[in-house]
Design goal:
By secondary structure, the protein is of the alpha/beta class. The protein is built from 26 helices and 24 strands. The strands form six sheets. The chain has a seven-stranded mixed beta sheet. It has a five-stranded mixed barrel with strand order 1-3-4-5-6. A hairpin with a 5-residue loop joins strand 5 and strand 6. The chain is elongated and about 135 Å long. The structure holds adenosine-5'-diphosphate. Adenosine-5'-diphosphate binds next to helix 12, helix 17 and helix 19.
Length: 804
């Protein structure tokens, strides 16, 4: 049908019951006469129609349902023919839409459309309803009200609607108003609109209403049943709990087997009185708990902890110093200083105890804690074990490495899910006695951050003034640690928190020389590993030459851990050969060693290298003890760039910059052009790039390597050096001297250049054999270093004035 465009009459006039009015289609929904509703209109045509009507005096429109809700721009044949004449009470533009308060006035029939643009308009005629005011209509109306009341009481319908309904007494209005609130498909609503016979309409409304009431009642029923079921369970639980408390009140508790057993255990452990009371209280709590209560598991766990801790179990404390000495000697080679210090410590402990016993004091307090510091594998742990053996006590070890959370030491409160006591209490449980030797390993690696400071909790555990009632968050009751012999260990003491360090008596283990390692292997490790692999000395023998070769060619370490590992490896190989039928005795020599251990691992010993230009020998101090490191400098044509590689830390990089500046400032003495560095690139590398290195102490070694590279003269590789360099070429004091010198000795260096200020440390703690075998040069200035380290180094006379 072609669009016919007819201008609207300026003011729609009505002829009898006919009107010409704008038509607004609804996608979904029917407006009934005598109802009010707010509708939102988004389509342009509808908005135009609305605005046009609103500006007119009558403010009337026809609202009609679309037959299909998918048509965007409906044409007359897609619209229902029965519609409602409505009044627009108010317009509220909102965003892209216009909201309108629409009041239904009268049913109409659309006779013809007289315009399609700018909006639909049609000629309509009012429809007359068939209303019979008889008793049947009355009865039907009452019935509608009755059913509707049920919906209201079921809170399905707004109470206000009901009040409106009651206010009107015309059956046709009541039918329409109820129809508008029904939860009906639009097509049924349209059908109600088209039902002009009021009785008929009332009947239909009743049918829909009863259906809705029924559905509402079914829903209500379902939710009541769910609620009832829930209530029943709840009631049962409450009753059960009440029964328990009634039984408890009457003293008629029925103890389960579990409770009985736990009670017996509590009595047997002989805890301190107050702790036993606490345990029994918790037990009572457990007894009264429903088995479904998740908390029961936690309470049970807690009681188990109380039962299993060694409140009163003690091993007799042997304190014959003579015997202790024998055991320490038996278990360890060398370590004279450490052993002496331990024996002194034990003697003091013994005397103090005797004195306190005589004075009738109860607590034994040893105010300092032994702390063994040294590289890995030097026998710290095994010495601790020997002490325990010498004293006849149990031994436990706990690693503190990486602990950042106070709760790791002191536990989490019971209220946390999965809470446990801290490591100290866990260690005590493992020990099973209240006077073990308790080794706190890696005390130098303890950290602290926002989760609290673990070292302060540790201090409390170590402090004899406080530790007889150490508090653990989980345990809640104090535990007596005063009989524990704590021994701490670590690789370096520089990183131990100062407050802790204050409490510790440091015993340093500097690492072994090759001869000591050989004796340790010969006297201890070989036998230990033969036994551990299930062999006997009839199956295997290590010749001395083989052990020495293992030390030199297969390991490079301060301790003997890898040495022990290599010996174990050879033993395993022999064990395998024996089990596969080869019963002959294996004699391991230097020559056949590779059959057992594979190819040698270390070849870069000093003796096997040669003196090179641009390669100096530095001394380093790391967690693994002292070591030597080679600093390599390569020069190439370029633009004066300085490259540093080998995982160097910031401090070491800065020290390399300082060394370079020093070399530049000495260009005259080195016989170089003033701007010699502008045409070359310099690369400084410290091999074993995978090992991070840091610290300022390689300064003079870097400067020496640089100078050697520039003057093109080789460095004596047997000269090791360590010292910080300043821009003006002064040589500053360094740390870790002892470990560095032991490593230098181990690596076969012959001469050592040291800062003059370190001379005082030399006599103090460096082993005698090191002092005996090495030649020392003490320097204040870098200028003194170069002639010692670089072969045939001659300082050029600088021309002009030189400042001294
Ligand atoms: P650390 O605790 O210092 O890292 P360990 O105590 O674990 O070292 O020692 C590693 C191994 O070396 C152990 O089997 C230990 O018995 C052995 N060991 C270390 N030093 C000696 C020694 N002086 N005498 C005998 N055995 C030693």
């Amino acid at each position: 049908m072609p669009d016919i465009i007819i201008p609207l009459p300026a003011s729609p006039k009505s002829v009898r019951n006919e009107h010409i009015l704008p038509v607004i289609p609804l996608l979904n929904g029917v407006v009934f006469p005598s109802t009010e509703t707010i509708l939102g209109f988004g389509r342009e045509k509808s908005k135009r129609a609305l605005e046009n009507a609103y500006d007119a005096t009558r403010r009337q429109v026809i609202i009609v349902l679309q037959k299909s809700s998918v048509v965007a721009d409906p044409k007359p044949d897609t619209l229902e023919s029965i519609a409602v004449l409505c009044e627009i009470d108010r317009l509220l533009p909102f965003d892209q839409e216009i909201n309108a308060l629409v009041k239904g006035i009268k049913r109409v029939k659309i006779l013809e459309y007289i315009a399609l643009e700018p909006f639909l308009s049609a000629r309509v005629v009012e429809l007359n309803e068939t209303i019979e005011n008889d008793s049947e209509t009355m009865a039907l109306t009452n019935s509608v009200i009755g059913e509707f009341k049920k919906l209201v009481s079921g809170k399905q319908v707004d109470f206000l609607n009901f009040m409106n309904l009651m206010a009107s007494n015309a059956p046709e209005r009541i039918a329409d108003q109820v129809a508008s609130t029904l939860n009906l498909k639009t097509k049924y609503k349209q059908e109600l609109l088209e039902t002009l016979n009021v009785k008929e309409r009332l009947r239909k409304v009743i049918a829909y209403l009863t259906e809705e009431v029924k559905i509402m009642e079914i829903e209500k029923n379902i939710s009541v049943k769910v609620q009832e079921k829930f209530d029943k369970n709840y009631k049962e639980n409450v009753l059960r709990e009440k029964l328990k408390s009634i039984e408890a009140e009457l003293g008629e508790e029925t103890e389960t087997k579990e409770i009985k057993e736990l009670k017996e255990k509590i009595k047997k452990v002989a805890m301190p009185k107050d702790i036993e009371e606490k345990a029994l209280k918790e037990l009572k709590k457990l007894q009264q708990m429903s088995q479904f209560n998740p908390e029961a598991g936690y309470v049970r766990n807690y009681i188990d902890w109380l039962i299993e801790l060694p409140w009163n179990v003690e091993t007799p404390n042997h304190k014959e110093i003579q015997k202790a000495e024998e055991i320490l000697e038996q278990d360890h080679f060398g370590l004279k200083k450490a052993k002496d210090r331990i024996l002194e410590y034990l003697s003091i402990m013994k005397l103090k105890e005797e004195k306190e016993r005589n004075n009738n004091k109860t607590k034994t307090k040893s105010s300092t804690i032994l702390c063994f510091i040294g590289p890995p594998g030097v026998g710290k742990t095994s010495l601790g074990k020997s002490i325990a053996r010498a004293l006849g006590r149990k031994f436990v070890k706990m690693s503190l490495g990486g602990i950042r959370d106070e709760a790791e030491i002191r536990g989490h409160r019971k209220t946390y899910v999965g809470a446990l006591p801290g490591r100290i209490i866990q260690g005590m449980k493992t020990a099973g006695t209240k006077n073990p030797v308790f080794m706190l390993d890696e005390i130098d690696k303890i950290g602290n951050d926002f989760r609290g400071d673990p070292s302060s909790a540790l201090l409390e555990a170590l402090d004899p003034e406080q530790n007889y009632q150490f508090s653990d968050h989980y345990l809640e009751v104090p535990f007596d640690l005063s009989n524990v012999l704590f021994i701490a260990t670590g690789n370096m003491f520089e990183t131990i928190p100062p407050a802790l360090l204050d409490r510790l008596e440091i015993i340093r283990f500097s690492g072994y020389i090759d001869e000591e390692k050989f004796e340790i292997a010969r006297q201890y490790l070989v036998l230990k590993q033969i036994e551990a692999s299930g062999l006997t000395p009839e199956n295997i023998e290590f010749k001395n030459s083989a052990l020495k070769a293992v030390i030199r060619k297969y390991t490079r370490e301060a301790g003997v851990r890898n040495l022990e590992r290599e010996i174990a490896k050879a033993c395993r190989k022999v064990a395998r050969m024996i089990t596969s039928g080869d019963a002959k005795k294996n004699i391991i020599t230097e020559n056949n060693l590779h059959n057992y251990l594979g190819v040698r691992r270390f070849i870069d010993t000093i003796a096997e290298k040669k003196d090179e230009v641009g390669v100096s020998t530095g001394l380093a101090y790391t967690e693994a003890g002292g070591d030597i490191l080679f600093i390599e400098v390569a020069l190439m044509p370029g633009k004066g760039n300085l490259t540093l590689t080998g995982q160097l830390g910031d401090v070491m990089k800065e020290s390399a910059q300082a060394a370079f500046s020093y070399v530049r400032s000495r260009y005259k003495e080195l016989g170089l052009e003033p701007n010699f560095y502008q045409k070359i690139d310099i690369h400084i590398h410290v091999p074993e790039g995978a090992v991070p290195k840091d610290g300022p102490s390689a300064g003079i070694a870097i400067a020496t390597a640089l100078a050697s590279a520039f003057v093109k003269k080789p460095i004596n590789r047997y000269v090791g050096m360590t010292g910080e360099i300043t821009l003006r070429g002064s040589v500053m004091e360094i740390g870790g001297l002892k470990e560095k010198l032991v490593a230098a000795h181990r690596s076969g260096l012959k001469e050592i250049i040291l800062p003059k200020n370190n001379k005082k440390d030399l006599e103090e703690d460096v082993p005698k054999y090191v002092l005996r075998d090495l030649k020392f040069h003490f320097v204040e200035k870098m200028d003194q270093v170069l002639p010692i380290a670089i072969h045939s180094f001659t300082k050029r006379k600088s021309h002009g004035k030189t400042k001294k």
